[in-house]
Amino acid sequence: MLRDAMYHGCYILDTFRCQSHDEHDANDQVVSHSFALSKVNSLKGFCSSSRNTHILEQLQDALDNLSYMILDVKELVVFLTSYPCLYRQPYSMHLLLHNCMFGRQMEAELVLNFLLQARPHGAEELEVLPIVGPGRVGKSTLVANVCKDERVRDQFSEILFLSDHDFRDEKLMHLWEGCAKKFQNCTAIKDVRVLVVVEVAGDFNEGEWKRLYSSSKQFLTSGSKIIITSRSKKITKVGTRSALMLKYLSDEAYWYFFKTLAFGSTDPMMHPRMACLAMEIARVLQRPFVTGTITAGLMRDNFDTHFWCKLLAFLRGFVKWHVSRFGEDPSNCLNQNKPAHLRRMIRTSEAIMVYGWYECRSQEEVPKMRLQNLMYGRAKPSGRFETLAWSSPIPPYYSYIFACEIEDLKNTAVKRKRS
């Protein structure tokens, strides 16, 4: 709650700063003293005053919320004084956020509690925790990061990762036989606990799940557990625990993450104009995690007001073009793995046709060409090709590969006119 209140306070404060900065720039402009313009400016001043009042009220609410929380945790602070201090390094925070699972601390604790909690004495059912959430929300990332925790590694002798393609009887039999052979020489076989992580990529099939659960109860020893992840809410009814529902990051948390990565070791307070540009860019992106990480890295590598202005204008035009032409935001298309068209910032007469994308493990070979070089550089491959969108630095270390083709917008427009 305290963390969420901090994100909210930062977001409201930055919104107020950006609005104040924009108004200051507007006041510095040379304006004609004609009667018509003076009436327009007085109206703008009235609207601006109304906005300021609203934001000031939000600032006061955020401050009051934080103040009440700090008063409520004053007893906790007494206990915290016995712990060693952590020296705050705000300008290296981007290195920490880039290499950690952001915004999922509470969810990770819930999964850890499920895995480490001893089963009630006499209980015979195999415990199952369902995790439900939309695509690209971070279900696999959450589970993979929890599974690398030393306490989980000590609790379970084996961690198996399965997909819904492994539900078939012959695959299950082969899987359990392999586990049995692996631990047959173990002196205390009753202490061999297995964690099974099942990722349902498609629609949930209850009949196939029952076969998996039945065979798991037959072969797995007491203390073994199952985590099942899916986009479908149908899996909630197979859990022995309440399902964990994952949602996308809030606007406030996403802005904190995006700003930290975009500015790196630079203090945003020293660059108010660029902070406003970054906030507008974050709003245009609409919170997709992968795209936000790529864009923030591009901004940090090109830390220049002119480039950020150009990038904001490009992204606004690109999203508007895609919605008007295809009726949908490009981020929604990519999130659902549907075909999408990406514009190019330098080669404006060309677009990148994305037919789809897939994930691959870090040890697998990935394309050398990167998506940001296509969108913001001059690279021009021919025919159909694959490009690396992003490689995650945290478990499960997925690389995201796009299947693409360069499309000439001028030729496409001519063909449509002829048809």
UniProtKB/TrEMBL annotation:
Residues 124-265 form the NB-ARC domain. Coiled coil: none annotated. It comes from the Eukaryota. It holds the Pfam family NB-ARC. InterPro entries: NB-ARC, P-loop_NTPase. This is NB-ARC domain-containing protein. It comes from Urochloa decumbens.
